Amino acid sequence: METLPTDPMHRLRAIMARLRDPVHGCPWDVEQTFASIAPYTIEEAYEVADAIERGSMEELRGELGDLLFQSVFHAQMAEDGGHFDFDDVARAIGDKMIARHPHVFGDESNAKSADQQVADWETVKAAERAAKDAGGVLDDVALGLPALMRAEKLQKRAARVGFDWPEITSVIDKIAEEARELAEARETLPQEKIAEEMGDLLFVMANLARHLKVDPETALRGANAKFVRRFAYIEQQLASRGTGPADSSLEEMDALWDAAKAEGL
Prior knowledge:
This is Nucleoside triphosphate pyrophosphohydrolase. By secondary structure, the chain is an all-alpha fold. It has 3 domains: 8-100, Helix Hairpins (Orthogonal Bundle), CATH 1.10.287; 135-214, MazG-like (Helix Hairpins), CATH 1.10.287; 218-262. It has 12 helices and no strands. The protein has helices at residues 8-19, 27-31, 34-53, 57-80, 86-100, 102-105, 114-131, 147-159, 168-188, 191-211, 216-240, 250-262. Helix 3 runs antiparallel to helix 4 (57-80), helix 9 packs antiparallel against helix 10 (191-211) and helix 11 packs across helix 12. The radius of gyration is 25 Å and the shape is globular.
């Protein structure tokens, strides 16, 4: 059997090439496609975010490796198909970073605020899209993004060409309007229309987050984590009384929720 390289990156790529070898490789790896691997790539990205959220550097090291392996996997499949290889991927992202940071790699001054650098970044990206003839303003916002994240990106893109509420008050008024429409739909309309109205309300909530400069995905992850902490507190307190949520009233659990909140959970 061929000896693997000792350099970590070369070793990883050699492992992937061997796994994909049509004769001596792993049958599962050989039969995979871009489409079949894509869900794993998304999952690994979320697991990276989860390790960061929990502050676990040991887990983050492993999850970053898993995510890197996904890039190597896709690049190997592309090389197998004669499209490009990992070096092309690395070269392309390197070129992009240099082009998008003229204040670091070029002659521009780097004496800019973070907001100005973001604005410059968006200008460069807009020029790249125009060079690729991307079509409409929203055409290249990825369909595979989580819905909440995609809503925010669609709104940001539309806002750059002037399609946006000028102030937060207008957004809040729209939320109230959508909430009323949802309440009315619940009483009179079929389930698909209720789902549509729910989507409209969530879309405007994402817009409010953008106006408040809050990342909605991060905010919702925080709310999820808070819910888990407080419900765990409810379970612990009920267990100490020899009971559990299924055997308790809503009033009991609500009181324990307030107690968890008072304790800062």
